[in-house]
Write a structure and sequence with these properties.
Elements lengths: L1 E4 L2 E4 L6 H15 L4 H31 L8 H26 L6 H6 L7 H27 L5 H26 L20 H25 L11 H21 L6 H4 L3 H13 L3 H15 L17 H16 L1 H20 L4 H15 L2 H8 L1 H7 L3 H8 L1 H14 L12 H15 L10 E4 L2 E4 H7 L3 H14 L1
Antiparallel strand pairs: 1-2, 3-4
């Protein structure tokens, strides 16, 4: 075909295939790349070494948890059930992470120059899908091998097969969920064919809920002196059922690739870029700010209510109103309260499974619980304009916004003290106060600086000011652990 434009005959240009586009991009990267083949092999070697080291540590840790004798390490049956609960919760959290990050996403350059072209969308995204499915299947298969407690070859083969099918099915379902309509802020998502699109979020919530329910059951059975039966997982049945399920979900994911539009492909790019940047620049606020914005957008709409003036209580107008606003903020952000409760259950699970580390992890859990409630303090300390708009002194605003984390820490301490590896004595207020101080010091951390003092050592340059900023909060927590150990 050809078209005539102002008397000129313009021949039609056929759109390139996905293979031709990938070949052209590879040639362009080679021309602009300054790395040699030796540098590439070095990167591969370092990546393989790190994966092997951390994988070996993980396998040893899981084997030690499952096979250590029960003497001094908790009841083995309870530990097995807690392991299953952790597995369920981990699968649910991994599903939520896949949903938040895409799982298929493109870079801004590919979004601008490739996603807008008439190239075959399925052929272009198929290698990414294959890599995602293979990586997910291999990771879960390795975890299944680490968690297998029998050790013969037939059992290891079935465990690896069951884990691979589970990982492949989860990744394929995440891609199938991504190919649905884009989620809006004010309306629930619905399938154009009339079906509901609530199943992706419901699947992760149900899986995490099953893990929490399993932990709660183990804790209740322990305090009621009820002996739970030893869990028996039908690994062979999971493998046999999982093979056709994995094949079906992978086929559905491949067939639905053409439905991925540009907005869907970039929905998780911001989160992935923020995570990579935060890890590279050692600045967690880059990721936490993006997560906070996504959480508030997910809420979308709230119900407005008047604040009590507080004159009848003899309190000033500004402190009392700001305290009410901080409490209402926690109510409107229920995930912080849910994480607070999950940390309490985790402390009991650690106490039942590994009592030797219950005491230091109790302080770490209290610190994380206080951190989840200190969002208002972080916002106040990070915005000078907001402090000027609210009025009052900086010390007054900080003290008002530390009340909720302090009360939350005290309640968390009272709820979890039976699982603290000790008793609630008269000196317990000292480590509790240090935990609140650690949360306050972390929330009032100034912005990161990257041009400060550096120390030249045999191991390379060490950014002293950067590490000092990162240590604000954890340093006081380490002191709290030492004090708690001395007072125990």
């Amino acid at each position: 075909m050809s078209g005539a434009v102002s008397g000129w005959v313009v021949p039609a240009v056929a759109a390139p295939t996905a293979r031709q586009l990938r070949a052209r991009l590879r040639e362009s990267r080679k021309r602009h790349s300054s790395k040699s083949f030796g540098d590439f092999l070095t990167d591969v070697y370092l990546l393989t070494l790190l994966l092997g080291m951390y994988g070996y540590v993980l396998v040893n840790a899981v084997h030690g948890y499952l096979r250590t004798p029960s003497g001094g390490h908790g009841d083995p049956v309870e530990r097995y059930w807690i392991g299953i609960a952790v597995l369920l919760a981990g699968v649910g959290l991994a599903w939520q992470a896949l949903r938040a990050a895409g799982p298929l996403l493109v870079t801004p350059a590919a979004y601008t120059w490739c996603a807008a072209t008439p190239v075959d969308r399925r052929g272009w995204l198929l290698p990414r899908l294959v890599g995602l499915l293979a990586g997910s299947a291999g990771l879960v298969a390795a975890l299944s091998l680490a968690a297998d407690g029998i050790g013969d070859r037939s059992s290891l083969a079935w465990a690896a097969t069951a884990g691979a099918t589970l990982g492949l099915t989860a990744a394929a379902l995440a891609v199938a969920a991504q190919t649905g309509p884009t989620i809006t802020v004010t309306e629930p998502t619905a399938d154009p064919a009339g079906g509901s699109r609530r199943w992706p979020g419901l699947l992760g919530t149900v899986t995490i809920g099953l893990g929490v329910a399993a932990v709660g059951t183990v804790i209740a059975a322990h305090f009621l002196a009820y002996h739970l039966p030893r869990p028996a997982l039908p690994v062979v049945g999971f493998a046999v059922v999982g093979l056709p399920l994995a094949a079906t979900t992978a086929t559905v994911a491949v067939r639905r690739l053409h439905r991925l539009d540009r907005a869907t492909l970039t929905s998780g790019a911001q989160l992935a870029t923020a995570a990579v940047t935060a890890a590279a620049w050692l600045d967690p606020s880059m990721l936490s700010d993006v997560l906070q914005v996504r959480r508030w957008r997910r809420i979308g709409r709230v119900r407005s209510r008047r604040f009590s003036p507080g004159a009848r209580f003899g309190a000033g107008a500004r402190p009392w109103v700001l305290l009410q606003a901080e409490v209402r903020r926690q109510v409107r952000h229920p995930s912080a309260l849910a994480i607070w409760g999950a940390l309490a259950l985790s402390q009991y699970a650690v106490w039942l499974a590994v009592p030797a580390v219950a005491r230091p992890l109790h302080l770490l859990g209290a610190y994380l619980a206080a951190e989840r409630l200190a969002g208002g303090l972080r916002t106040i300390c990070g915005s000078a304009g907001l402090r000027r708009a609210l009025g009052g002194g900086n010390t007054e605003l900080r003290l008002i916004h530390i009340v909720v984390p302090a009360v939350g820490t005290a309640l968390w301490w009272l709820v979890t003290w039976p699982a603290a590896g000790g008793h609630l004595g008269s000196t317990e207020w000292v480590p509790a106060a240090l935990v609140v101080a650690a949360a306050y010091r972390s929330a009032t951390r100034p912005p990161m600086i990257y041009g400060g003092t550096t120390l030249d050592t045999p191991f390379g340059l060490i950014p002293v000011d950067l590490l000092r900023r990162l240590a604000r909060g954890p340093d006081v927590l380490a002191a709290a652990i030492i004090v708690s150990t001395l007072l125990a």
